[in-house]
Amino acid sequence: MILSRTKVAESQIVQSLPGCSDRCGNITIPYPFGIEDDCYLSKDYQVNCTTLMFPTASVKLLDISLDGFMRGVLPITYACYNSTYQLSGSDSWIWTEKFLVSSEKNVLTTVGCDSRADIMSMDTEDSLAIGTTRSKCNRLYDELCFGYGCKQVPLFESISKFRIRSQTKTGKLGKWSFNNCSYAFIVQKDQYTFYETDFDNMLNRSFPVVLEWTVGGDKCKYSQKNKTTYICKENSVCIDAAYVGYNCRCAQGYEGNAYLPNGCQDINECENEALNDCIYGCVNTNGSYNCSCPFGQSGDGREHGSGCSNLEVSKSPGKTIYIGMLTEKSDVYSFGMLLVELLTGRKVFSNDGTESDLGLAMFFVLSLERGGLIQILDDQVKKDGVDEHIKLIAKLAKDCIELKGKKRPNMKRVKEELDQLIQSFI
């Protein structure tokens, strides 16, 4: 099947209304289609699970995609002759009502010698496509369909009510030793390969046809004005169809069935590296995601983003405390040591790599307990002036580096306190 699918397995997506079946054998039946009464949008979308047919369309269902396409099977038209008269034949009168046979994804195919096929509109009797094979059937090429024994031509437009007719176009009726029939059918592009043996065994075969399906009877901007009849649900977008009606799609960052309430669910891009461009950490959000920076930095951690920069602490009104992407899984002690480094200007490791974070932590805690905060602050911090904000940040740092882990706040609490500090700077 060439029709696109959603990013997750169909079994993980709610496809039908509550209490309704969503499968006919191996075929998924997503709403607005349905099987039982009150399980479909309207009678046009009802699927007979026994015959796989619709009440208002002469097409046998193969599969349905939420992208606005489905595949089905249509009859093959044929005409068989002997040397003097037609022995048997059948034109195909086809109606698909709400579903249009796609001109973009299908072709009219003619198989036979001296054969001609055409499609006529039931409404206007205009010719919608004509395919004619070459008369020289002594030159046949398997796997090629360009005029010798087989010909494919495009449809002029998408159609829903039409007749397919097949006939022989010369007086050589029944004179070919290997072929006395002509066939015509619509088939999905690239889904039919011609072989010379097809001359004798076409009637028992079937080929997929792509049909376009929509909902509503008007364009999006008009349909959206009537909330009662508008079909697209939350976290979705409306897309105008090329002809009549519209389709619903889940908005970017969501997946599922946009025709069902709560049918579009958030995609967790962080669970799949192919869905995010984060260099470091990924934080999922509703309908999107954020890319975090390494601990101690803030900014944009996307591959082609603005980049990450070192965390800064500023006490000046109107400036911001950059706290990076803090989560409950962040290391409270490490964050506390980061604040200590920023406040004191000292690094956890000295130039010779011998000073430990424990030594700096004890030095900081003892200094605060003895009222010596000003003495240990970095010159730049003291230059800006020591106010209540700096004291609160220092106290928060002290709480985070408590030797007894049970006395430390969790990161959720740390973030709440920092958020309050940020608001007080504004």
What would you say this structure looks like, in words?
- The chain is α+β, with helices and mostly antiparallel strands.
- The chain has 4 domains: 10-55 and 214-266, no CATH class; 71-212, Jelly Rolls (Sandwich); 268-310; 314-425, Transferase(Phosphotransferase), domain 1 (Orthogonal Bundle), CATH 1.10.510.
- Helices cover 16% and strands 27% of the residues.
- It has helices spanning 220-223, 332-344, 357-369, 373-376, 379-384, 388-400, 411-425, and strands at residues 23-24, 27-28, 53-54, 57-65, 69-73, 77-81, 86-90, 92-95, 100-101, 106-111, 115-121, 127-132, 150-154, 161-168, 181-188, 208-212, 236-240, 246-250, 254-256, 264-266, 281-285, 288-292, 297-300, 307-310.
- A 5-stranded antiparallel sheet has the order 3-4-5-16-9, with no helix packed on it. Strands 7-6-15-10-13 form a 5-stranded antiparallel sheet, with no helix packed on it.
- A hairpin with a 2-residue loop joins strand 21 and strand 22 (288-292).
- Helix 6 (388-400) runs antiparallel to helix 7 (411-425).
- The longest helix has 15 residues, at 411-425.
- Mean pLDDT is 82; it is low at 1-11, 313-325 and 349-355.
- InterPro entries: EGF, EGF-like_Ca-bd_dom, EGF-type_Asp/Asn_hydroxyl_site, EGF_Ca-bd_CS, Kinase-like_dom_sf, Ser-Thr/Tyr_kinase_cat_dom, WAK_GUB.
- One of its GO terms (molecular function) is polysaccharide binding.
- This is EGF-like domain-containing protein.
